[in-house]
Specification:
This protein starts with 5 loop residues before the first helix and ends with a helix. A 4-stranded mixed β-sheet has the order 1-2-3-4, sandwiched between helices. It is 56% helix and 12% strand. With 141 residues, it is α+β, with helices and mostly antiparallel strands.
């Protein structure tokens, strides 16, 4: 079994974007085209949502399948070949953090929407409608 060195892992990790990813840009472009204005990577809100409507208290996260653990049990068993313990620990930590962020925001009156990359790319109208419905719900209050 081949292992990735710390130096190689560092080079790989530096290439991974934490903001302005393709899925974020896609969803933001769609929202903008429909006349919705938002904050991006809003660091005044716990969890730093990818897209945020502070006045409506709506936080939106665009989660990649691998990093945020979509179908993680299957990935863990099949895809992870190198440095399994490192990647399993990393993704499990991300999953726990996501749950913590969700709980904190919901407990403080926020609507939290999380979309998987595959949803944003394949069902963008569904994602847009979820956001619009959340905004309409907030406007009623």
């Amino acid at each position: 079994m081949e292992f990735v060195t710390t130096e190689e892992r560092s080079r790989i990790m530096k290439r991974i974007k934490s903001k302005d990813t393709l899925i974020e840009l896609s969803l933001r472009k769609l929202l903008w085209a429909h006349g919705y204005r938002y904050r991006k990577n809003y660091n005044k809100i716990y969890g730093k949502p990818d897209i945020c409507f502070p006045s409506y208290k709506i936080a939106i996260f665009c989660d990649s399948s691998f990093w945020h653990g979509r179908e993680f049990e299957q990935i863990k068993c099949k895809r992870l070949k190198q440095n399994r313990s490192y990647w399993i620990e990393k993704v499990e930590k991300n999953i726990k953090r996501d749950l913590s962020v969700n709980n904190y925001l919901v407990d403080n009156g926020w609507i939290v929407l999380r979309f998987w990359d595959i949803e944003i790319m394949d069902k963008e109208e569904y994602c847009l409608n979820q956001i619009i419905d959340s905004i309409k719900l907030r406007k009623l209050k």
